[in-house]
Amino acid sequence: MENQFVGIWTYRSVLNNPELSVDFNALEFGRGNLKIEATAPGKLKGSIYGPGWALTLKGAIQYGAPATLWFQGSGEVNGALWVYDYLCYAAPQIPNGKNQIPALVGTVTRAIPHPNGSGGTSPAGVVASFYAVLQP
């Protein structure tokens, strides 16, 4: 089966805060490029990266309706190990939709604590929602 997920995706994640009054910009958790590479059937590899950081991805794809992707990103950022777990689904094409772009929607979880750049520690277990859209 051809891997329709191969390519570079624009990735954005937001904190799961139910308070509607919180400014949308205050919810940003992360942004970057998500690169999925061709690999063995059912497997996933690639990277997620942005200015000054990159994580190597490994995981699996379960084809179905919807397709499910699970992967873990890990790497050293500013001398500290970062590890994140991702679970997402391929959003289906909606009948009568116009100019739909392939999209992934899911959850990202910080697997281990790491320094946050302001002298503190970003704790493990933080969960955010994300989406990614395929770049042309």
Instruction: Estimate the helix proportion, in percent.
Output: under 10%
Largest sheet: 8 strands, antiparallel, barrel
The tally of beta strands, per DSSP, is 10
Our measurement of the CA-to-CA distance between the termini, rounded to an integer number of angstroms, reads 21 Å
CATH superfamily assignment? Avidin-like
User: Which structural class matches the secondary elements?
Assistant: mainly beta
CATH topology: Lipocalin
What is the domain total for the residues? 1
What is the residue-averaged pLDDT?
94
Q: For this structure, what is the CATH class?
A: Mainly Beta
- Label the CATH architecture: Beta Barrel
Task: Provide the spatial order of strands within the biggest beta sheet.
Answer: 1-2-3-4-5-6-7-10
Give the amount of beta strand, in percent.
over 45%
Tally of contiguous helical segments: 0
Order of helices and strands: EEEEEEEEEE
- Low confidence ranges: none
Shape: globular
